[in-house]
Amino acid sequence: MPDDLRSPGPLDAFRRILGPNGILTAESDLEPYLADWRGLYRGRAMALLRPASTEEVSACVRLCAEQGITIIPQGGNTSMVGGATPEAKPNQVILSLARMNRVREIDTADMTMTVEAGLILQKAQQVAADHGTLFPLSLGAEGSAMIGGLLSTNAGGNTTVRYGNARELMLGLEVVLPDGGVINGLRRLRKDNTGYALRHLFVGAEGTLGIITAAVLRLFPAAKETATALCAVPSEDAALALFRRFRAADEGAVRAFEYMSGIGMGLVMDNIEGATLPVAPGFEHFVLVDLSASREGAGLRNLLEQVLEAAMEAGEVLDAALAESEAQRAAIWRLREEHPEAQKRAGASVKNDVSVPVSSVPELIRRSSAELVKLIPGSRPVPFGHMGDGNIHMNLEQPPEMPAADFLARAHDIMDCVNAIVRELGGSFSAEHGVGRLKTDMMEAWRGGAELAAMQAIKAALDPKGIMNPGKVLP
């Protein structure tokens, strides 16, 4: 870094590093970056830094380390737990990766794609598809979530049951450390036993250990055949029984298996324009089954029909609609993906992103729903999510007559209610959204002792000045 960047004026120094298009300081320009998507948190920042290269990220971080300026890395700002929101403190900057959005390389022999952290997930999916391959990570915010943020939170999504979380889809990382040093780990290797696998430290660390600037992602063969259905089922147990039927018939064909409640489906119907229910109304439980195969002639439609026919005979499926076109498939998926937006439009809600062993999902939904209604009479449990991998969003919608502020004041009571059941079932209080600011107080009880001490030691070693995303993950 040039010596003149050590001047007393950090904003001028940032401008010299980034150029006129690389920094925003006006309050009106900063406004969209200061609050989280859910509106739970709001902070302040002296500037939004918009580097266009790893070298610029490194220079900015080095300057921050020298000046004692804290850094809040931000991708698409889609965090459900306030993980990318600044605190209400002075002397901090937001560092956006949005301008670093290139695909550096794609190799269909290695089945890898090297991309920068600011690449939007939907764009990554499209680039992979244009090359006849598949990048399988898929979630509701894929039109705005960025690769760096998805890796930093170890995002899960709809296809984890088949392809795993973001961690399993990454082979190598390029990371800027809190002192400005750069780990150049963009290796496309499936096997590399050369000491500590440092890349895995930064996946799921939520920007508290460094800034992911690029990644090598795994690609897969594109789907040549798909089959999708929306099923009404009589109970949570029947939903799990149906999953087991599909898994027994052809586990490799199951791309996604999603659970939705009748209350949640009702919120989508009431609040999302154009949403249509392809089965008869009035059911209390639904599942979305999505099958795919990388070869033509896989017989997925026959498989889907045979399993559903057997399930109907056993009383495990009450009604079903099978997609006859890509448009119908997209319409069925929309019913699932619009759940968060429908809840947002319906009023205040408290999110519980939890996981339990797959076999315990029905008990989680039943017990949590009953206890939440007892805790806050008139409230509406909205459980939905990834039954196939044990991750259920055990959300609660405010009672219609209860002021939103009063309901949200009970947020930690609601989370504690669900988490007590999750703990009994051997689960986790955060499945795919991360810890962020929302759940740091839970870390001591859930990950205390040697486990938390190890995390704190790693943080202290890599970020001794505590400038990287303070107030997140660790209590």
Automatic annotation (TrEMBL):
Keywords: FAD, Flavoprotein
Pfam families for the chain: FAD-oxidase_C, FAD_binding_4
InterPro entries: FAD-bd_oxidored_4_C (IPR004113), FAD-bd_PCMH (IPR016166), FAD-bd_PCMH-like_sf (IPR036318), FAD-bd_PCMH_sub1 (IPR016167), FAD-bd_PCMH_sub2 (IPR016169), FAD-linked_Oxase-like_C (IPR016164), FAD-oxidored/transferase_4 (IPR051264), Oxid_FAD_bind_N (IPR006094)
Domain FAD-binding PCMH-type: 41-222
Protein family according to the UniProt entry: Belongs to the FAD-binding oxidoreductase/transferase type 4 family.
Protein name: FAD-binding oxidoreductase
UniProt organism field: Roseococcus pinisoli
Native organism taxonomy: Bacteria, Pseudomonadati, Pseudomonadota, Alphaproteobacteria, Acetobacterales
